[in-house]
Amino acid sequence: MLEHLKGNGQEFINEVATIGRIHHFHIVRLLGFCSEGNRRALIYEFMPNGSLEKFIFSKTNSSSHRPLSWEKLRKIAFGVARGVEYLHQGCNQRILHFDIKPHNILLDHNFQPKISDFGLAKLCSKDISIVSLTAARGTAGYIAPELFSRNFGEVSYKSDVYSYGMMLLEMVGCRKNNDPAVEIQSQIYFPEWIYNRMRQGQELCLEFEEDGDEGIARKLAIVALWCIQWNPTERPSMPMVLQMLETDLQSLEIPPMPFVSSDVETGAIT
């Protein structure tokens, strides 16, 4: 059931129109909808495991107590990437989601991920790489810098790549990318903390149960850091992301510093 709809229900109409034309294993299937008076409802296929966010943001979860194995997280990351790739490349028109985040990734009985919530989506021609928007759209923490200022570059499908990268980092850290509740000041902005550890060759201080778990974590982190580069042209396309997720860890290079760094101890900005 949709509540607190803004305007004339344009987001509702947008979602029905967009998702009604999509058929892909990693995108939630719309079975029907209701529009009667002020009542609006979308009927999706049932996802018994709910959304990804409840598995990585629960107060009982932490990087040392994971309800999902690293192998499951790897498969979820790959499945979401396949879904986003389809939106960008597989439809007659390119679909930009603009709200990729753990809350909008639903999990079926086998923990296969399905992208949902197309209320902010925008359709555009495949031969047009730049998208015109009147205002930033998305969720704070996942919105690409160019959606706030064109000084960072033009809005395109690379904006979804940025959101996907932020989601990956949250999957790795089992926490929000910017969490004031973290006790250690230098770890508040998780992307910067994990980048510094990766660059210095340090352990990620995460809990690993099986051989290969650390390799999965480091690979997801490296791919994520490429995806959140502030310059959109430096981010990989989703086909490239899929290729990186399948390649050997040793073949992946750590990207340049993807953001403006804040030195917590000195207060300097670099």
TrEMBL record:
Q: Which InterPro entries match?
A: Kinase-like_dom_sf, LRK10/LRL21-25-like, Prot_kinase_dom, Ser/Thr_kinase_AS
Protein's membrane topology:
Single-pass type I membrane protein
Domain of life the protein comes from:
Eukaryota
Q: Give a Gene Ontology cellular component term annotated to this protein.
A: membrane
Listed GO MF terms: ATP binding; protein serine/threonine kinase activity
Report the residue ranges that make up the Protein kinase domain in this protein: 1-260
Location of the protein in the cell: Membrane
Return the Pfam families for the record: Pkinase
Q: Which residues form the signal peptide?
A: none
The UniProt keyword set, sorted, is: ATP-binding, Glycoprotein, Kinase, Membrane, Nucleotide-binding, Serine/threonine-protein kinase, Signal, Transferase, Transmembrane, Transmembrane helix
Location (main, coarse): membrane
Question: What protein name applies here?
Answer: Protein kinase domain-containing protein
